[in-house]
Specification:
Elements (H helix, E strand, L loop, with lengths): L5 E6 L3 H12 L16 E4 L7 H14 L11 E7 L5 H11 L4 H17 L10 H11 L4 E7 L19 E6 L8 H9 L8 E6 L7 H15 L10 H21 L5 H11 L14 H13 L15 H7 L4 E4 L4 E4 L20 E5 L2 E2 L14 E5 L2 E2 L8 H13 L3 E5 L9 H6 L5 E5 L4 E2 L12 E5 L2 E3 L18 E3 L3 E5 L3 E3 L11 E4 L3 E2 L3 E3 L8 E4 L1 E2 L5 E3 L7 E3 L3 E2 L5 E5 L6 E3 L12 E5 L26 E5 L12 H6 L3 E4 L19 E4 L8 E4 L3 H5 L6 H20 L9 E4 L10 E4 L9
Amino acid sequence: MEIEASYQVIKADTIDAAAERILDELKEDTASTTRWISSKENVIYFDGWDGLGASAVLRAVVQRLVASDQAPPELHFDQIIRINCSKWESRRAMQRVIAEQLKLPDEVMQMLDAQDEDDDYRGADHGSRAELPQVAREIYQRIQNRRLLVIFYNGSSEEIDLTNFGFHLYSSNKVLWTFQGAFRLKSRMKIDGAMKTAAGTTTGLFLSAASADENAALWPDLVRHEAAELVARKSIGHSIMEPARVADCFLYLLNLCGMGRHFTMDYDLATHSSNYWVCDGIIRQLEGDTDLDDSSWRAAEALRREMLLDVDYYPDHHYLPSHLLKCAGIVPCWTSPTYRIVQILDGGAISSRVDIFQHFNKLAVLKLSHCTFSFLSPPFICCHYLRFLWLDHCKDQEEISDDGAAGKEEGIRRCFGRLWVLVVRYTPCDQILSAQMMDLMAQLRELNVMGAQDWDLGQMQERLPNICKLRVTKSTIHCSRSLSENDLFSGMNKMDLLDFSGNRITSGMTNLSMAGNSKSSTLETIIIDDGCVGLEQISFKGCANLKNVSLRGLFEVLFSLDISGTPVKTLDLSAMEVPKLDELIALGCNKLCAILWPPEGKRRENLNKLRIDTTGVTVRSSASSLSVKYGSREPTTYDKYIFVSDSRLLRSLLVFKEYFDRNYTHVEISSPSSRIAVDVGGSKEKSSRIIKSGSGNEHLVPASIQNQQQQQQPEIIDNNASVYAGVADTLKDHVQQEGEGDDGNAPTITQIWPCPPAENCTLMTATCTYKTSR
């Protein structure tokens, strides 16, 4: 009989008290005579105190069970398995964590590696990768006939049934789990969601804790324990982060949430939490670290990734009418977390109030919203400790008096010369971001511009040498000076993130290129969401550290994309609309596994220039290459050529099959020495294939094949068989799917002759997908 899920609140004023209460729930029911009972009864969820403290309690439970030599029999477990997936990746990644915990054989780990690799070549999203049934069977075989306790930190947004991973729960096995990890709030919404779908829930008991007597000391104690839990996991990786400092960072964010809640103030914690911690001195510079606080910034960024508060910053706002929210959002004010203050300004004009910041001269973080002041003589120039300045919907008021101009100029130099972070949203940029002002910002690490109008982006050239993150979004921009295609970001050799989303380019700039500083490029992330009007060419050529590329939206005039020399594994263009994209260059992309194209109707039917090389070969000459040539032309002189080290990449080109049916493309496949020959039809000598049409007609077309192993040792030719088989296997699934059609003329796969023992070997196939140039 199915057991209904239940919800209980336990009274506990300490971590220890909650842990003891949960241990009672984990005790085995020795009176039960049945081996199998509902798995729900064995699965317990703990929510902590309004979400806080759950991770620390689970840790305390494990410590008691491991340290106790006198544990009663009902609390004896053969093994305690901790599955920490608080930072969620996928069900596959979770299965890998389980396999590592159980120390499964290398063969099992290789199953996961092989499937991940194949999914890479299929362009499968990491988050969608499911667990493998064969690995689940191995997990089941390892844990059967053993009593287990599974501690599970679930970073996903839904309940996970561990049965699918090989954990078939008997009456003696238990699962204790919680959502996310340390430092989360108000996760009851997730519990409610799970219980509303009770028919599908696998949890029998949902527990949360509450203080019996409103103990004021409870909450600081919970924060301290959560901080210790986070540091113990060593996921931050920096000695600068002690538990006390981690706790201070959490309380700082809570303070911002409270300030923002009452004034609908947007502090954009998802982006700037680490900036607040460093700029306001919560995370301080290490002694001897003179490199612009690099250690502090790295520690803060690592903590930001761990401290993802699961909290609605403004929980009451959804009850307010939308027109009231709009009114609340345009109240002129200034706010500073440094002093924990939000001050409403009458009328918004603060230029005449020269003393407004005199008593706050140690401000480190300042946000001005809907204020009017002179940008040439801002009222905050007395704040010589200012590190983070945010101007939101502010207006410039021309300065009338020249009194004290020299002193103001010195104040501006000192103020802006110390800035680390500058955010300018829907505020005129002509003065704040003029060439003269940017010359002062030698220490600026992050610049965020949103909603700028007619801003001259060319002024950034050879400026902002310490910029690490540059975001220019939803702006109208132009470039007045004459720049070569690689000059715009020259000198910005520390930049690791560029966000250029939703901009409109009016004149003087049609090429977005990072090639100018590629030799020392630290760029890791490029984001262009919501398209970019007026952008014709995009080049990340030579960005050797580029890992994340997000391109989305309409690029109406974009015709060229170059990712040469980058370590990008999946080039995802599926969310783009590129009606004029005509060139894709991907040379030296040794890690490229898949290209995901825009859907039909949002791209051209073909590309006039397609150059792909993933082989890692830097020099191709007539003396060393095994390529088939026509006349004196080298393959690299053609507009279309493809050199791949793994034939599975060719799956990405099936979208252009109809085009290849009518046109010639030079293809070379270099078989790595470690590649295993695929012999679907029998012996190695007969493992190459030919693709025929269903009607029996053959159209033999040469496709040149280059074998790097053979190039080094010409007498060894067996690897050619794996090359040929790889080509056929690449198209096999696609061909078989077509063979299920009604016309009966779809291609099928049959055997052909073995690889010819010649220096320049040629694969003869009936498919028109691969043809040599001429």
